Amino acid sequence: SPLTVADVLTSPPSCIVSLLPLDFFAGSGRPMPPPEQQQTKTPVTSNISISLNAATDKQRLLWQDLDMVKESGVLAKMSSVEIKHQEAMFEVLSTEESYNKSLHVVVDYFMPHILPFTSSNTMSSDGKLFIEKSEHHRLFSNFSALLKISDNFLQELKERLLEQVTLETIADIVLKHVTKHFQPYVTYCTNQTYQQQAASKISDTPAMKKTLCALEKASGEMLPFYTYLLQPMQRVTRLPLLVVTILEHIPPESNHSVLTQQALQEVQLFVDQCNEGARSMARMEELINLQKKFKFDTKTKPVGLVSQKRFLKRSGHLYRIAGTTKKGWTKNSDKHKVSLFVFNDLVILAKLKKKPDEYYQVIDYGWLHFAVIEECPVSQLPPKVVEAERKRAFQSIDGIDGLGSTNSSPMRPTTPGQDDSVPTAFKLVFLENWDGTTTEYMLMADSLTEKTRWWDAMSDDDVELTEADGKKSVIYELWNCPQHVVLFNYTPQQADELALQAGDVVKVLRRMED
Q1: Nearest 5°: phi and psi at 261?
Q2: Which tens digits make up the pLDDT trace of 283-327?
Q3: DSSP assignment, residue 478?
């Protein structure tokens, strides 16, 4: 699944100190350009001289460790609160310096060695890797623009530090750059889906993979190339945390709280824009892939899925109960697996076909506001299906439930057939389908929980439980809800699921019978 800015939040922060070998480095600590460019290329980085070389991989350089701070004698006059405030502001500068060096590794080293195809070059030669022009554009996107932004931001932070050994604020600098200069980050994050695809293609052939590995080793960092491409997204997610730390350590008597809060609001808005950019492109890619898999018969009018505002809310398999005639259910009435796709404006019912290639044969579709889900009375279900479902529910009702508890359900039937319903069954009704007619389908989910999630996906509001449903679930108040410790990591498979890590604590607001 595509990677979003939020996914990168759990990755290690981008505080990489350059360790490239001497033959790749100039005195500034950044990769040397190719020999043919060394005479003409002008360094772009800050000309402000503040040594951060005291920083190591295991210990971050502190503001109070700077020679200029020690020599000024200000530490003896400052309280611990004031020093923490200085350290919080200086961390923005020191982490930007490390991030800036990583950007230079890409622009000054990898970009000159990973080039687009031309009529005169080959797959790889002279330690260089050649890829398709379109893939090269997706891979590096607007990386050079991000480097220029970082250079300017870093220089202004250094200038402030030279002007004020004891920093009053950097909120004005952050506010200025976030609101006026950081927009290319949104573009970069939006392109991330295609960038990830382009990066994976580099390793498609052994020759390309071998050349890339050689480049990674020669860089001296011993880090995968794609790690560098993630650094801008890491920086985006880290910036609000840095500003929050500044805000937390502002001395009570300071008059810069309002400005820092304003900067934090703009940074959070900026992160939201980056997240939305990444999500929108991932959603668009998902729609494009789905469009290729849907097939419509000659009697069904095709619908175009790809739309800027459309996104998939939920998809998965259900069972369609089929086998009716005008006189009722036939002896062969049974359930057949189908697939349901619920978008924010559209509902499509289809059947998965696997020969010759996997695709979805569309059964019916309609607009979401014309599609409703209704309870399915047991009297409308074939006896064969009812009996089979009751037996299955009775056999699986005891044991471990979805929360890892060994408590059996308080609502379990004592004998098969005691309950006068099949709780996992429901009707999907198109009040108006694609050609304006009313159609309905009897469907069955794997569990009551799955059925509830389908109801939630079909509605923008919270599902109101009927009296029958209320007997099969328990709703807790937030102050009195049970808590459970997650035992295993879980990666979401649907948009309505949570990403869980072992050790997380979850609060249960609704507990279903199953």
Answers
A1: -65, -40
A2: 998 999 999 999 999 899 999 999 888 999 999 999 998 755 444
A3: G
